[in-house]
Design a protein that fits this description.
This protein is an all-alpha fold. The chain has 19 helices and no strands.
Length: 416
């Protein structure tokens, strides 16, 4: 049986307008869904406000060289390990929301520590040892949402995940501008303290809500007695995550080199460059609900293979057009890529490891750190070897591998 043929919340009952509740109404009515939506918006807002400011803070406030500042991003490589440890414990003993709160507190302490750092080594250690665990908060929320949709199936589970995920994307749309403004008006340290507050504030919308209890299902081991999934059972998830890394690797290349290309070689004014960069997240948010609808008709994995192909086309636009229209087209195509993966990726990861959804969520969500490292290395080598804009051929080639792999998995050859 292929991934696309696996049972989904569809059929006559799911399609009946009397049975199918409005997704937005469902999100508003559920304390978990509503609280997770607000929490993820705050998470995206805080993280995206801080991320673009890290390098300049290290250089201007703590005396790092540009090379040393670049090494800071390698500290995120501990995130997949931390995410796996948190996810595995969550699947063994439960307590999704309890672990979420612990991770949020870790994030608060981590960003507070970075904002108060007085030595260059301190942000590196804090990021590697503390913020790696903080990133697992998001995966715990998605695991709790999965538990809720399992306990109360109504055919809208995929759409609920998409709506909640849109809140995280919305935070990332607003955060960079808000962080830049706050840092300019006050200081980077104040901005990091604000990020710490946003990270801790994730806890507030969920209040004292407890982890949903999933009723026993025939053939499933109760979570309290669950063991770590066998390595063989994790292979489809790991394969899917590896392909996702190949798709995502183009993002650090784009954000590092597309602004340089536009400003230094093409001579675009800052307003035009900003508009080109900013069009992607807007397209992404618009397309996320549509991606859920299309996936019900085509299958998630097939749709993600198409989305990866859009990413290849986008990077070809970056590498070959040299015009504002061509770069706008590339960014719009990239919006299509992330509209699909942001809406469906976490759901697919959970379906590929249904016996350990917290582990699946953590592995998938933390894989962006590996993708950032791969993209950083590829971009650095490419810019030195073949220069701009031809560097974008490298993520296009990685994307071709992802298209082939996702199409293969969609055909059912990688899973039972």
């Amino acid at each position: 049986m292929s991934v696309n043929d696996r049972p989904r919340a569809t059929g006559p009952a799911a399609d009946d307008p009397v049975v199918r509740t409005s997704v937005l109404r469902l999100v508003r009515a559920s304390p978990l869904y509503r609280g997770a939506t607000v929490a993820l918006f705050l998470s995206g807002l805080g993280a995206s406000a801080a991320t673009p400011q890290i390098a300049s803070y290290l250089v201007n406030d703590l005396g790092a060289s540009l090379t040393e500042a670049g090494f800071f991003y390698l500290t995120s490589l501990t995130a997949p390990v931390a995410g796996y440890l948190v996810g595995a414990r969550s699947d063994r003993v439960g307590g999704r929301l309890g672990l979420f709160r612990v991770c949020a507190v870790a994030g608060f302490l981590g960003w507070m520590g970075i904002g108060l750092s007085t030595r260059l080594w301190m942000p590196y250690v804090i990021s590697a040892l503390v913020l790696g665990f903080a990133g697992a908060a998001t995966s715990q929320l998605f695991a709790a949402i999965h538990d809720r949709t399992t306990a109360h199936p109504d055919g809208n589970g995929d759409a609920v995940v998409a709506v909640v995920r849109m809140a995280l994307t919305g935070g990332w749309v607003i955060g960079p501008a808000a962080g830049s403004f706050l840092a300019a008006q006050t200081s980077p340290r104040t901005m990091f303290l604000a990020t710490a507050v946003c990270t801790l504030a994730q806890i507030v919308p969920l209040g004292a809500l407890r982890t949903p209890v999933v009723p026993p299902v025939a053939g499933h081991v109760p979570r309290s007695r669950a063991q770590r999934p066998a390595a063989r059972a994790m292979l489809p998830l790991l394969a899917f995550t590896a392909l996702y890394v190949l798709v995502y690797a183009g993002e650090p290349v784009k954000y590092a080199y597309l602004p340089l290309y536009m400003n230094e070689q093409l001579g675009f004014p800052s307003g035009l460059s900003g508009a080109i960069i900013g069009i992607q997240p807007l397209v992404e948010i618009i397309l996320m609900p549509l991606a859920v609808v299309l996936a019900r008709r085509t299958g998630m994995m097939r749709l993600m293979a198409v989305a990866a192909a859009l990413g290849v086309a986008a990077n070809v636009c970056f590498a070959t057009t040299g015009t504002a229209a061509g770069l706008f087209a590339g960014q719009i195509l990239m919006g299509g890529v992330w509209g699909v993966f942001a809406a469906l990726g976490i759901t697919m990861a959970q379906r590929l490891l249904p016996a350990a959804v917290a582990t699946a969520s953590a592995i998938f969500l933390s894989s962006t750190a590996l993708a950032s490292a791969l993209g950083g290395v590829a971009g650095g080598i490419g810019s030195a070897a073949i220069g701009l804009p031809h560097t974008f051929v490298i993520p296009a080639a990685l994307g071709c591998l992802a298209v082939a792999g996702l199409a293969w998995m969609a055909g059912g050859k990688a899973t039972d």
